[in-house]
């Protein structure tokens, strides 16, 4: 894990002191991964967001732009700036790119129909002309549990907020996860046909706290920024000279038809605050250490700490590999330890 | 009434979240979230169960740990709610 030097302001601890060295380290690892798996290059699902743009730049640095394929996979609910920004990054990095509109695949899989069916269990009129998103209450402002609500906008522009029952909520999430899983399927189609690796794009917040879809955007051969705070990803973006409109774009999920910030859907604070909280937990600092820098009371920071712990527990399932009845070759060091334990 | 609520809630938690764990190991005052019995999805499941089983409505502002984070608190809250004494 990257451990930048810490001094002065608490914010210093989550910045990269030497971005050039980090780029060198990551590109070295990327080249090693390609050699290890005997693959010629990398596929990156490019969304125009900061994470995929930085990963695209890193794999390009590692093997050269001609050995990278940027795959742009918008669908009907994508934001209007998604494709233009992704195209801009691909042009800026001189990457070969393909545009795959995944809307027809998603429609065939029933992504939209299954999602809307679940929403209609709470809002019977939901349908053509409506749009929706899932939102969380702000845990720093409320003592209530962080239970998702569905916010829907009707064709007249009126907003409706409802608490979905568990079955409907799970169906909305499961149907929406088709989006990440279809993108993973297409990424691997291109990777297989070109003999490339798939480079995943989660940053540390997403990877550690489970903000990804298992076998969707969680599926990749190498995850070159999974050890970096989002703040550090921005540091790399600046160092790599990525376009300013990519670097200034507010992180969104780009998954629901209504605009949805990541801190509305999953994280209790915007990424700057989340990075500071994760860093404080790394260092064993108490909640009180962050009150000034976050402008929150100790109990509010503690609620964020508790939310992080809860998300880590949920993430354990997302990270788990399939359960085997006994280790099967090729064995990992972890398998050997299990065998040693069983034999002892 | 309290004994009935406790029995039903324990059965619900045992069947849905604790599976093979020893149900007697969970004291009435133990935090369900800190013991890993419930995550946020589990809380949503619990609320739906309580509303359906005890024919009550749990408004958003009542979805608080002090009402729902232990078996004792759930029993107390459901009993109050059933008697029309919202906390």
Oligomer: heterodimer
Share in β-strands of chain B: under 5%
Would you state the CATH class of the largest domain in chain A? Alpha Beta
Number of strands of chain B: 0
Largest sheet of chain A: 4 strands, parallel
- Whole-number tally of structural domains of chain B: 1
Percentage of residues assigned to helices of chain B = 55-70%
Major sheet characteristics of chain B: none
CATH superfamily of chain B: ACP-like
Mean pLDDT of chain B: 88
CATH architecture label name of chain B? Orthogonal Bundle
What CATH calls the topology of chain B is Non-ribosomal Peptide Synthetase Peptidyl Carrier Protein, Chain A
Find the structural class of chain A using helix and strand composition: alpha/beta
SSE string of chain A? HEHEHEHHEEEHEHHHHHHHH
Based on CA inertia axes, which overall geometry of chain B fits? Answer: globular
Count of discrete alpha- or pi-helical segments spanning 4 or more residues of chain A? 14
Helix content of chain A: 40-55%
The overall pLDDT average of chain A reads: 91
C-alpha termini separation of chain A: 33 Å
The CATH homologous superfamily name of the largest domain in chain A equals HUPs
Instruction: Enumerate how many helices of chain B there are, as a single number.
Output: 4
Summarize the structure.
The complex is a heterodimer of chains A (344) and B (87). Chain A is an alpha/beta fold and 344 residues long.
